[in-house]
Amino acid sequence: MENLYLKWIDYKTNKKYVLGALCRDKQNHKYYFKLSQDYLSKAKEAGFSVAVLPFTDVNKIYESDVLFALFRIRIPKIETYDDDDLQALLEEYDMTEFDEFEFLRKTKGRLMTDYFILEEERDN
């Protein structure tokens, strides 16, 4: 099982807060997401609003056959790429074939429109 930790960055302090973990089970072709009550409480104290997340139940392990939308929007739509553009993307991120989870690992899933990132380390 591979894990990436969803973190919120407090734009005022630049401090990162773990919210939960995105997991991929390559063998069974499944994705899982679980919020962390303890870490989420720390983020809320710093001003984070859970209302911005599609995941609201801290007691639930969310499961899907496809990458959850919150993470999928952080992936380029490679089906629109021509062969040269795809090859350039693969070279830029040192990949031999496109893999959504690996792309998130390498780019941290950064977007200009929010304060979420994905990292392998859980440190807070």
Describe the structure.
This protein has 124 residues and is α+β, with helices and mostly antiparallel strands. The chain has one domain. Helices cover 25% and strands 26% of the residues. The chain is globular and about 45 Å long.
| Strand elements, count | 5
CA gyration radius, whole angstroms: 15 Å
Which stretches are low in confidence, meaning pLDDT under 50 for 5 or more residues running?
A: none
Instruction: Give the termini distance in whole angstroms.
Output: 22 Å
Q: Outline the biggest β-sheet.
A: 5 strands, antiparallel
The share of residues in helices is 25-40%
Shape: globular
Average pLDDT score: 93
Query: If strands are numbered along the chain, what order do they take across the biggest sheet?
Result: 4-3-2-1-5
Q: How much of the sequence is in beta strands?
A: 25-35%
Domain module count? 1
The tally of helices reads: 4
Sketch the topology as an H/E string, one letter per element. Answer: EEEHEHHHE
By helix and strand content, what is the structural category?
A: alpha+beta
